[in-house]
Amino acid sequence: MEVSLKALVKYTAAVVLCGFVSAVSAQELKIGYVDSEKLIKESPQYSQAQKRLESEFKPRQTDLIAKQKRLKELLDKLKKDGAVMSEEERGRLEKDILARRRQLESDTTALREDSNLRRIQELQKLREKVKEVVQEFAKAEGFDVILADGVYFSQRLDVTANVLDKLKK
Q1: What's this model's pTM, rounded to 2 decimal places?
Q2: What is the predicted pLDDT for the residue at 26?
Q3: How many CB atoms lie within 10 A of CB 160?
Q4: Least enclosed by CB within 10 Å: which of 7, 90, 101, 119?
């Protein structure tokens, strides 16, 4: 019988939680739940990060659009005037178009990779901030456990809106 690592982790977490519940059964256990994706997407820090990324990459995007436009102009010129151009002139234009197309593809790939990397970095910083605020909230409100992103949680355990209010401050 083969047990997956994920199943083993879930089982272990359930056993630990049950042990925790039985250990504090004499006391009232205060448990909460947060939807971390909702906290991230609805936080003011998320929209600020999006604006930062947009302004950071806007010059490069504008440059790519200009390069695309210039490439299209050259392709149109080749299509329109190619038949009446000298062999040498047409050859130079075709080489220029090929070089510009390659550079545009390279620049587009670099922009996509750079923006994805920066987006991941910004999300990681935001996740850390959310984690910190959830921990502060839990301590301030006397929670024993705050769970995140489970399969099902009762609405009365959901403290996402409360934590979101803390993030907005």
Answers
A1: 0.70
A2: 47
A3: 20
A4: 7
